[in-house]
Design goal:
By secondary structure, this protein is mainly α. The protein has one domain. It contains 13 helices and no strands. The protein is globular, with a radius of gyration of 22 Å.
């Protein structure tokens, strides 16, 4: 009996060690790939001259707008850390400091992957090995909440934008309708996750699958609403950052134009498949297309899209890379 328990204990710890090694290996691999692509993007960026010229033409009074953007950066990712801590609280209690490290590491490991799906590698690295399967599921739920908010704000803004600028064309009506149906479906799934988790928990699924799904059964409606509320606050923060960056580049939008164009831009950026390292180009393209309807300063709009990407993703990615490497050593 004692030998059986000893064998089980050794097997358990070996599995945990293997899991930790695999996560650390993926973290380091994604870090190397991310840095390599970042270096590539820096060498192939062709707007340094325009950016330098814009800096030279910027009066000190407009520098405050850039200061506001930078000031909101910690709040942006602090809210994300709070949300991650709330999500993991039913599985494993983590400190806010650990949550911050997890989301920064996630930015680093997600930089190379489509739509930043690799973020979960960095995030679950800070969970105990036995909780990492649940962490994968919770990371997906985390992304789901932010996408729901993007659509809730973005779809009405999109309708108003195209109604104002050119009238709703048939293809745009079709796009908005499909997106609206999709987000309603996703919303229903989100709020019924605990129910389906409990159904799966009582079913005949394998233990392996249940390690991914059981974590959701502990949440209630209040938890899900609170998590969604934090996502909404974070959405407002990075919309404000984008607006301040536009003002820094001397793009003056009326409050109505900002409320319509910025959520529309984020809607298209979010639901366009892309890699994080190519998001600058995607973000700039949509910003020029949408915000350009209210301003003819095309170059400045494109530069604002690039700069907000650098501040909100490159800076945290570099910090997260250091955190990830320190943890893996």
């Amino acid at each position: 009996m004692d030998s059986t328990r000893l064998f089980s204990s050794i097997t358990k710890h070996s599995g945990n060690l293997s899991s930790k090694s695999a996560v650390d290996f993926l973290g380091v691999l994604f870090f190397i790939l991310s840095v390599a692509f970042l270096v590539y993007k820096l060498f192939t960026f062709h707007q340094y001259a325009e950016l330098a010229a814009q800096w030279q033409q910027t009066p000190l009074s407009r520098a405050w707008w850039l200061a506001y953007v930078v000031f909101l950066l910690p709040l942006n990712w602090l809210l994300e850390a709070v949300k991650w801590r709330m999500l993991t609280s039913r599985v494993q209690k983590i400190s806010l400091n650990t949550a911050v490290k997890a989301i920064l590491s996630g930015i680093s490991t997600g930089f190379f992957t489509p739509n930043r799906v690799g973020e979960l590698v960095g995030r679950i690295a800070f969970l105990k090995p036995e909780h990492r399967n649940a962490g994968v599921t919770l990371s997906i739920v985390n992304s789901l909440t932010q996408n729901i908010v993007m659509a809730l704000y973005g779809i009405p803004a999109c309708i108003l934008f195209f109604s104002y600028t050119s009238g709703l064309r048939h293809d745009m009506i079709q796009y908005v309708s499909i997106t609206l149906i999709g987000i309603l479906f996703i919303g229903i799934i989100y709020f019924t996750l605990p129910h389906w988790s409990r159904q799966l928990k009582s079913g005949s699924l394998s233990v392996r699958i249940k390690t991914f799904t059981d974590c959701l059964s502990a949440y209630n409606l209040k938890d899900l609403v609170q998590i969604l509320a934090v996502s909404m606050l974070r959405y407002i923060v990075f919309c404000m950052q984008f607006y301040f960056m536009l003002r820094f580049f001397n793009i003056a939008l009326t409050p109505w134009q900002a409320l319509v164009s910025i959520p529309t831009t984020y809607l298209f950026v979010t639901f366009t498949p892309s890699l994080a390292f190519s998001e600058a180009a995607v973000r700039s393209s949509f910003a020029v297309l949408i915000i350009g309807a209210f301003s003819g300063q095309v170059i400045n709009i494109a530069l604002a899209g690039v700069c907000i990407w650098v501040i909100n993703f490159i800076v945290p990615m570099l910090i997260g890379s250091v955190v990830m490497i320190k943890r893996s050593i």
